[in-house]
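Students often ask what a holo structure prediction actually looks like on paper. The answer is less mysterious than it sounds. You provide the chain, you provide the ligand, and the output is a string of discrete structure tokens encoding the 3D arrangement of the protein together with zinc ion.
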Amino acid sequence: MMNWIDKWTQKLSEGTKMISKKTDELLEIAEMKIAIRDMESEIEDAKSYIGELVYQYYLNTHDLKMLSDEIKQKCAEIYEMNEEINRLKKKLNLIKGNHFCKFCGEILNPHERYCPYCGKKQDSK
Ligand SMILES: [Zn+2]
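The corresponding structure tokens follow.
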């Protein structure tokens, strides 16, 4: 069974093949935005799955110890999806020519000297 990450890696590489033929940046941007939105909604699903899992175990056994591996695995999947989302967001920012923080990847106002998201000092231009 494919996990979410495999599924997304596959979807993204299929998308990339299609895009390179068309060399259409706008299409690539749209694809990445869809991928980000879908992954964000899968993250929400995974979080509510964890919540449901914990609650069902509580109802059935009143013992949560045996759950930890399952929870750890789900959390790892969420973490990897977040990493992928950040990677895509950085790529989107580069394509769009936005200024962005080298440290956290958030979009910046070009004249901002400090990142409002992570607080790190930006290079002066
Ligand atoms: Zn930052």
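The mean pLDDT is 80.
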